[in-house]
Amino acid sequence: MYLFKFSLKLPSATATSTPRASHRWHSSLDGSRPAHLPRRALAGRHRSPGELSPADLPRCHIWLHAPPVERVFFYANATGNDVLSNLKDSLSRTLRDFYPLAGRLRLTPGTPNRHEVHYKPGDGVNFTVAEYHHAGFDELATDDPTEVAKILPLVPALQAGGALLALQATMLSGGLTLGVTFHHGACDGVSSTHFLRTWAWAAAACAGANAPEPPVIDRTFIRDRDGLYDTFTAPRLSSDNEDDGGKPLGVISPDVHQLFATFTLSKEHLQRIKDAVAPASSGGDRAHLLFSADHRTRLDPPVPEKYLGNCVGPCFASALRKEVAAAGADGLFTACAAVAASIDIAPGYWDGIMERIMKVFSAAELPLTVAGWPRFRVYDTDFGFGRLVKVDVVSVARTGAMSVAEARGSDGGVEVSISLPTGGMERFRECFADAMACLSSSPWRS
């Protein structure tokens, strides 16, 4: 394997220089709102760049020690220095509105378990440009099982010291990949997608679409639930490093032979599941699924759609293990019924949340978790160069989660990605094919 990396120092938003090897890129931000930005970019509720206080981190404590979310976007036929120069210049402009992402997550000085996002003028985001010759574009941008070891070099690592965001553009034979790593303590998937969509709009020369709305940077929209902060951060009381930003938990090292693959459910498949699904049974040996739901519209009063931060809460689906494992489509129906029931968030949702979490995690096996959401519309991330062929949530190889996104090239379908050892992947493919065959031949109709 040959992986050539270099970092660049992000120039000002007006610079047009071509990146050169051996330059360090730490995207700098000044300490005031730039006067030359369009008036629209200054709309919304902003605070001046500066230190963000501990009270500014409601709900992030749930994600402080979660593993980073790592995505790789595959763009066909996107090559050349012009593309790289455009990426870095547009990133510089975008970060001026999303400046908290250039800060650092740290323990509040003098406290054992209170965290804050600390930004100071000059902080920034590391962006790496790489050339990768170990595998070609077509070999990696595929739904078929692929060795995780071949994909991981496309993913940037968060810089030590509590970095919140890392980016990497990798030149391949036949295209370019854009690797994005977010610390979940900084923001949720809605906010990270908003950032990427805004960056893509800026890189595409602001053509063909209206400017995305700016982020709303005001953490006072959400209050911390009594006791939840201390409960979630209690395991970190033994930390002696005030600048660790919360070391991730639950990260596993992928097996050397581990595979990554993507499976698609068409709109017709999903409709047949909805037609046939029934309430899950209760009691007995149960399987559990943990996933997140956006709470922006569920709070009273609602939180702005473009709120920058975390505004998600956990949902727990549970069903009898033997019913989930049933042959054909029956197991799929049982699982979907349990998921549908868990999404109905009633008043008092946060009351007893810790008891529900402890119940799920005290089971014989840890719950399956989900990363992503079809409504993120990740395939709409258009930078104006090349065709977006594939989006992989590579971090599922480290967490054991399953990623979900809207299906490419179909109206209403869903694609699911999972990472398993060779034997487990073969069994999963057989079960998936069996379920799809049952769905295609089923007589159910709405």
Structural write-up:
- The protein is of the alpha+beta class and 446 residues long.
- 24% of the residues lie in helices and 21% in strands.
- It has helices spanning 81-95, 137-140, 148-151, 189-203, 228-233, 267-276, 321-324, 330-343, 353-361, 396-399, 422-441; strands at 3-7, 69-76, 104-107, 115-118, 126-132, 146-147, 165-172, 175-182, 259-265, 286-294, 312-320, 368-371, 387-393, 402-406, 414-420.
- The strands form three sheets. The chain has a seven-stranded mixed beta sheet with strand order 6-9-15-14-12-10-11, with helices on both faces. A six-stranded mixed beta sheet has the order 1-5-7-8-2-13, with no helix packed on it.
- Helix 1 (81-95) crosses helix 4 (189-203).
- The chain is globular, with a radius of gyration of 22 Å.
- Residues 1-59, 235-247 and 278-284 have low confidence and may be disordered.
